[in-house]
Amino acid sequence: MRNPLGYKVLRTYQQGEEIYELVKKFTGLYLHRIEDSRLIGHMNDSARSVPRNIAEGYGRNNTKQYYEFLGFSFGSLLELLEDSMELEKDIKGGQRITKDNNGALGDLSKIIKLCMGEKTMLKNQVDKIEQMVGEQGLMSQNQIIAKQMAENRRKEKAFDDWLKSLKNN
Prior knowledge:
By secondary structure, the protein is mainly alpha-helical. Helices cover 79% and strands 0% of the residues. It has 5 helices and no strands. The longest helix is centred in the last third of the chain and has 33 residues, at 101-133.
């Protein structure tokens, strides 16, 4: 039986937690509590979703559900990364002023670097699951249809080539 808390040893989970803590610190220190309330909520929620979806997926009954929750985690990570890069650009460009622009930029740089690393690790984790499980239910309906259509085109081409070879003989 699998350890129900085994997700805690995953580097993606651990780094997700680290990102979440840094984002909470950043939003609390550098963003205006009232004027930036939506942004604060969105960044904190996105950061929180990264490790929580890893944990929830790990606790699911099958690999397909785990795979799906890793996808949710990945999506939340990308949202956070986009918000962080936009904030960094706005601070550097003078469109946004914080209590301490240098401190904010330093913390944003850490968040962005960790997000980029997390993105790579999550992608690798998803790729390994795909490789390990193969086609056992992980393909979406559209992927299955596209694969079948490609196979049908290959068979039609082989048949057409065979017919041409008969005509040429």
